[in-house]
Request: fold
Amino acid sequence: MNLWLFRMLRSSVGRKVLMAITGLLLIGFLVSHLSGNLLVFAGRDAMNDYAQFLKEHPGLIWGARIGLLAIFLVHVITGLTLAAENKAARPIPYQKEACIQASLPSRTMARTGLLVFVFVVYHLLHFTFGVVQASKHAKHLEGLRYDVYDMVVLSFHNPIIALSYIVAILVLWMHLWHGASSFFQSLGWNHPKYRPVFEKVGPVLSTILCLGFLSIPLSAWLGILKAGGM
Ligand code: HEM
Reply:
């Protein structure tokens, strides 16, 4: 292995940098995923055309999937290692005063991160592999082209599915709230002059992203988005 990379992985500062870079790349995925998903509001054809375009470019989609999986694994494994190290270095929990200073999102990063991981597995079983709500998924593969619009909208007509997504997106919100701001600190960009700006990046970015994601299950559940032909 490249000596530089090896040294980076061995030092906890290096691993924090790796967390920051992989976190930024995952946020990039979320921005592009949300942009594609918001096409649901542009109508059935717009969303299905986009899904069809991706399907017709397997090189593009598989390249992105493999890259995303690698980035995701590095982020999760490095995060768990850092959390375990922090715990080992501090066997006695924080005193009350320290807890007051650290926000809830920052204290629960490992837990919210793990919950997001569980959600992603569930989400893939739902929309990609069709294991959750299998009958609905299969129905939408029958036509001439993949009806992603109907699959998404009909799924969220089920309140349990809609609620499970809403809860998961709220957890993601907490994770990104702190995560997107700590990016700057991990890279050593914590000049007092810019710190107030950096501290706002996480809350603002996570709020925009998560409101965008929440709008989809909520609109389908409330009947604002209607399935094709209904
Ligand atoms: C309400 C919000 C969301 C909707 C409607 C949605 C919809 C979809 C759909 C339709 C697919 C493609 C399934 C396929 O054809 O293979 C997909 C894939 C995926 N989604 Fe989501 N998604 C949402 C939120 C999220 C969130 C919050 C995350 C991450 C935390 C996420 C991560 C992924 C991943 C990793 C894939 C697999 C990408 C791939 O195989 O190309 N999604 N999503």
